[in-house]
Amino acid sequence: MSCALPHERSVAPNTIEGEPVNAVTRRTVLTGAAAATAAATVGATLDTPARAHSVDPNSREDMLLFILLSSALTGIAPSKLAPGFALAPPTTNPPTVPPPPFDLSKSVPGSDPVNVKREYLTLANEKSPSALENLLRLVKKNLNAPNADRAIDADKRDEAIIKALQFNDDDQSRTPADVDAKYLARSIVLMWYLGAWYEPAELKALRKDPTRVATFQIVSPKAYTQAWALRVAQAHPMGFSEMQFGYWTREPNETSDFIGRRVN
Amino acid sequence: MAGEIDKILWDVAIIGSGFAGALIANELGKGRRRVIILEAGEGIPPNINKYMSRFYSASAKVPESPYTPEIFDLSDPKRGLSDPNKVNAGRPTVLSLGPKGKFGDWTNPKQAYLIQKGPRPFASTYDRVAGGTSHWLGTCLRFVPNDFKMKSQYGQLADWPIEYNDLNSWYGEAEKELGVSADVDEQKFGGIEFPPGHTYPMPKIPNSTTDQYVNDSLNKDPLTEGETGFLGMGKPVTKIPVRGVPAARNSEPYRNRRACAGNTNCIPICPIQAKYDPTITLNDARNTRFVTFQERTVAYEIVVGTNDLVSEINYKRYETETGKETDRGSIKARVFVIAANAIETPRLLLMSTNGGRTAKGVANKSDMVGRNLMDHPYYVVWGMSPKRIYPYRGPLITSGIGDLCDGPFRRERAAFRVDIGNEGWNFVVGGIGGDPNVTTLDFVNGLNKSRLNAPLERRDSPLGDEALFGKQLVDRLHEKFARQFRCGFLIEQTPDRDNRVTLSSDHKDGLGLPRPQISYNLSDYTRRGFIAAYRMKNLLFGKMSLTEFTEIGPEDPTRLEEEVDGKPVTLNYTGAGHIMGTCPMGDDPKQSVVDKFQRSHDHKNLYLVGSSTFPTGATANPTLTIAALSLRTAKHILDTDFRR
Fold it and tell me: B234: Cβ–Cβ under 8 A, 6 or more apart, which residues?
């Protein structure tokens, strides 16, 4: 069962004073999504048979699954994408075998005040609801993926998610829904990396005709400042440094300081 | 409103509020002169939040992106560029330097504010807000002494009517006002000398990891004559120092502004205002209580009396950038200072025909107004380093190579200076958004616009080899971003009479005023400078073991076809944003527009200031010289009695 976080339900979509006109569309989308959310049934679950458009950005469970999905796809630690993120029960050392499965109702999807994840989940749900639902179901299916030692293994979970999404468009064994899920997965990665929304259909069209000019929209000023592409490069979004004078004259800190893991 | 400012006889009226206008206004205000500034663009906002929001939201984070007027036509669902015909105080944008027939066609007056007649595009742009100079880089180099005497020293270009030593102390004053960080000993090159005991206001900005790699690679072993003979320095060059660039960027708190936090965003906007911009001096000027500022006010005619003195300047006002003209008026003053820029200043002079009495324009008995338009055509190259050098960190530029900007070679070819970029391939890689967008999209979606998603032998293939998720994606992007290198060569351009700003007879702006028309080309002397820069690039890239990725589109209007050592080579240029010439200073009223104090030869109460008065452009960024000349001119105005 999922349950909505009461304080999140009352939070209005983030708006920025004096946004330029081109952000209005974006704001309208968010406002619309919030209205839809308010009307949605509380307690939607993903372990029931498929029901169209049932992802709820206010649901704790959906947010947890979205962060796990995003972490698998981006390669960036969940606690970096969503500070305060914690699965329950936490793994012990040494691990118990077999380990207790994760209880999403007791897990925490994060406590960061910036909360860009909510903007992203809302937007993905607005743009591609059924593909998003399929992606979250994929995560749930692999939530407790064990490794050879029967310990629950985040790497195994991530591998299973990625494996399900890496195939050629002309692979006959895949359904159109699989293809939709793949391109939405790519849109989600780009959103986290660049703070920008590339339509899944646009990404698909670019693969067919790579000479097209790729178009996109910055999700919001906040999203731009939270983008990961240059943090992966041990830097920062251009125009949003959280570092101090003179940092550039030394080699950067370990990549784990930026993205929660070492780079090969 | 018009009525109020028109009722006063001002001591000084200044048109434009960029570096020159702001600095002069502040000096005059401190000297208790009553000053009015007319600014064509928007006023100075109380903070930069709106600019930052515009910048963060912009898909194309071009130099103009934080500022008004709108680059894109928001009423058009296809979001083309704004039609300059409808904009009241228009401006060029880098987005309107595209190939003919394509998006942003440089020759299309519906997309490009400047009416470009060619044969090559003039590639520099400017802004309007607070003089539009908020989006400068912050570089504060002095000119070297020989830059002021090219004709007498090398028989090329022109001499200035002043020498380095006339400006030496003014450079120091400008460095204090702008707040420059640099090390005096490191800046002694090319004949530059400082007064005894001189220091910069702040310690130097440290160099970047990229700068360190350039210097270590270039100077690991002494360079040989075979490697550096092409430079024509007249002496063996065994070492080419990579020096810190003096910058109006705080290295410690200075005048209530913070130290740089390395936002890597000096252009278009420093989010913490660690970089000086003229809004700071404009606020000081207004705090003197002697300076009044009026925005959205476009001067369109300088009125000259029968005594050859300027009596007033007529202006039009507007409320919104594409709205109707709302008001007209006329400013009266004892002294007038035109501080637009090297395109808008001659435009205003040429528009001022006084019913035929000054048919060639004001201050134009020499017929030199609008001529000698110059830039530092900027040859930009990029590649991949064999090791991680960690770009996208620190100010956009922290170091460069300046020592090669003066020598006997100037008899034969143009000089250049090298900029080392700290921003990887941010603005050079193809596609909207530049990097990090282009390369990220390539590796997420299996594309190859960056040409990094395929082996070298197939690097032009349109589809990429990999479409990655997860840790593989992180590893790949890290390795690609951390090795990107970009540098550029600022090339001195000859002052040529036919490189010229005139008025378009066909195309007007939103206020019905003729738009600037530009003719522009690169001389053989300038192009020989490109060839030397190309050879320098080969030396540098070889020493750094870089794989070159410089790409010049087949339809790129700034491509240059040259021959080097019998082989065809394609080069290119972008604009440096250094718009110069068009109202050159000199001693001879027949050959120049202003005297050495930037006072019009023709009208004794009219000053033209800014880089429009530069007789030559040298290779240093013009701002510090603009500032030094402005402070010197302000002193001249204060010391001159105009009450007669």
Answer: B407, B408, B409
